[in-house]
């Protein structure tokens, strides 16, 4: 069974309610048919008739209380809530749904603002980030061709602690959704001292912080990508690495590297890319590429349902 089928099968056993605020996007409405037919989750398409005006008024007031210290006024909040995206975020915060998926008709920045302000940041990690599940066909690397790539969509230049937290969040998502044992590689142009630079120092500090926060996780860095995922190369470049040649969670040093790599892998290797899956929040939610298909929406709903 391939990665996508496994994810859908796992989601069917959870039967979570996932809100879809982009009701007027054809791909999203088509995805509802897929989700319902396959029993992946209980989709809540937030058409105007599904929005309770009294509950919306309550959420507007709650959102205002959350953000008034930042200088927002009630009229601005009312304007935000003209978009069902914010209603979906507050439904998730309130526990009336288990998560939400959006991004077919919104930018990543739009979705993240609603998620971060509505759902809130996990105090343990203190940073919102994102990852992709990458399923590469006919690939012997990673976990039978499956990887987590992070961060590819949100944090432009993570510092060492942020990088460590991105690694922890990505590993936890991989373990829960994919059921694999995470093996984390902090990627670089250097493998264990083969080059020098500020970004390398940052990666080494990130690895140290990760091991202090989660000593049970298997992680290493700095590693070049071939040393991280190709066993034969790892034996030559760094045979003592605990993850060398076997990494399935790849942590990129910055957003440029992550975004370029996931898109290149998707196009050149014809990989499926699920995400961006938002991490570091109190409740699960997922962004979507604006170029997504109905199947992509359904698969992100499945991942979000599993993460509850």
What does this structure look like?
This protein has 308 residues and is an alpha/beta fold. It has two domains: 3-120 and 283-307, 3-Layer(aba) Sandwich (Rossmann fold); 131-268, 3-Layer(aba) Sandwich (Rossmann fold), CATH 3.40.50. It is built from twelve helices and ten strands. A hairpin with a 5-residue loop joins β9 and β10 (285-286). The model has no long low-confidence stretch (mean pLDDT 94).
By DSSP (H or I, 4+ residues per run), the number of helices equals: 12
Total discrete domains: 2
User: What distance separates the N and C termini?
Assistant: 23 Å
Task: Please give the CATH class of the largest domain.
Answer: Alpha Beta
Q: What value does the Rg take, in angstroms?
A: 20 Å
Q: What is the spatial order of strands in the main beta sheet?
A: 2-1-3-10-9-4-5-8-6-7
Helix content: 40-55%
- Write down the secondary-structure element order: HEHEHHHEHEEHEHEHHEHEEH
Mean pLDDT: 94
Question: What is the name of the CATH topology of the largest domain?
Answer: Rossmann fold
Number of strands: 10
Structure class:
alpha/beta
CATH architecture of the largest domain: 3-Layer(aba) Sandwich
The coarse overall form would be globular
């Amino acid at each position: 069974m391939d990665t996508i089928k496994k994810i859908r099968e796992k989601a069917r056993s959870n039967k979570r309610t996932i809100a879809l605020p982009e009701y007027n996007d054809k791909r999203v409405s088509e995805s509802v048919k897929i989700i319902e037919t396959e029993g992946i989750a209980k989709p809540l398409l937030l058409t105007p008739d599904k929005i309770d005006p009294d509950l919306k008024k309550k959420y507007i007031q709650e959102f205002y209380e959350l953000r008034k210290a930042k200088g927002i006024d009630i009229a601005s909040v009312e304007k935000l809530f003209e978009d069902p995206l914010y209603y979906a975020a507050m439904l998730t915060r309130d526990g009336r749904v288990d998560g939400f998926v959006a991004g077919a008709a919104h930018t990543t920045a739009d979705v993240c603002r609603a998620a971060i302000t509505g759902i809130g940041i996990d105090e343990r990690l203190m940073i919102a980030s994102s990852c992709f599940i990458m399923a590469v066909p006919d690939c012997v690397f990673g976990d039978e061709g499956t990887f987590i790539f992070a961060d590819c969509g949100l944090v432009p230049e993570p510092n060492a602690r942020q990088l460590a937290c991105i690694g922890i969040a990505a590993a936890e998502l991989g373990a829960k959704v994919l059921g694999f044992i995470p093996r984390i590689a902090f990627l670089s142009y250097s493998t264990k001292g083969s080059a020098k630079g500020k970004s390398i120092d940052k990666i080494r500090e990130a690895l140290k912080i990760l091991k202090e926060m989660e000593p049970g996780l298997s992680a290493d860095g700095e590693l070049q990508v071939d040393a991280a995922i190709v066993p034969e190369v790892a034996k030559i470049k760094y045979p003592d690495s605990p993850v060398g040649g076997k990494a399935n969670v790849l942590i990129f040093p910055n957003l440029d590297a992550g975004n370029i790599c996931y898109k290149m892998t998707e196009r050149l290797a014809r990989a499926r890319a699920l995400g961006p899956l938002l991490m570091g929040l109190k409740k699960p939610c997922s962004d979507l590429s604006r170029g997504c298909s109905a199947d992509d929406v359904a698969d992100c709903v499945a991942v979000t349902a599993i993460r509850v």
